[in-house]
Amino acid sequence: MIALPQVSLVAQTIQLALAPVFLLAGIGAFLNVCVSRLARIIDRARSVEALILTTRGKEHDRLVGEIRVLDRRMSVVNSAIFLSVASACAVCLVVILLFAGNLFDAHLGTPIAVLFSLSMLLQAGGFATFILEIRLGSKIIHVRNEVLYHKAEMEDGSE
């Protein structure tokens, strides 16, 4: 007959798993930010793509440059999302191993520590990649001088 775990052991295991579960909530919030940025980048790329087909000259070249940066930003934010999801999966494995170790009296301390460290490294990579995406976005987004110093003409043609 299989010995069933005591309620106190299950409660203790839940307490041990609580910190990694809060970590999952934080990773989820970060993923929400990344996905929102990705959606905005995609929306901007679609609007620039439509404009590229109707422009010529310097404006066309400027839009081509912008869409190239947008494409790079999409790749970078996708990498941040990938790293964060991989981190979340490692945290989930930590929680599973915590339960397995306590419920089956297995000695899983080393794999739990390794997986938790791996999840932190993956999340740190996700944050670093996100910083790179923010830097790319802030480099390309600026108000052009011709817009900053544009003066509206009066209706009669004088300034």
Task: Give the SSE map.
Layout: H1 7-52, H2 57-103, H3 109-140, H4 145-148
Could you explain how this protein is built, in words?
By secondary structure, this protein is an all-alpha fold. It contains 4 helices and no strands. The protein has helices at residues 7-52, 57-103, 109-140, 145-148. Helix 2 runs antiparallel to helix 3 (109-140). The termini are far apart. The mean pLDDT is 89.
Continuous helix count: 4
Number of E strands: 0
Terminal Cα span: 94 Å
Order of helices and strands: HHHH
Shape: rod-shaped
Whole-angstrom Rg: 25 Å
**Could you report the average pLDDT, rounded to the nearest whole number?**
89
The low-confidence parts are none
Our estimate of the beta-strand percent is under 5%
Query: Major beta sheet, specifics?
Result: none
Structural category: mainly alpha
User: Which percent bin holds the helix content?
Assistant: over 70%
In short:
The protein has 159 residues and is mainly α.
Record keyword descriptors for this entry.
single chain, 159 residues, mainly alpha, 4 helices
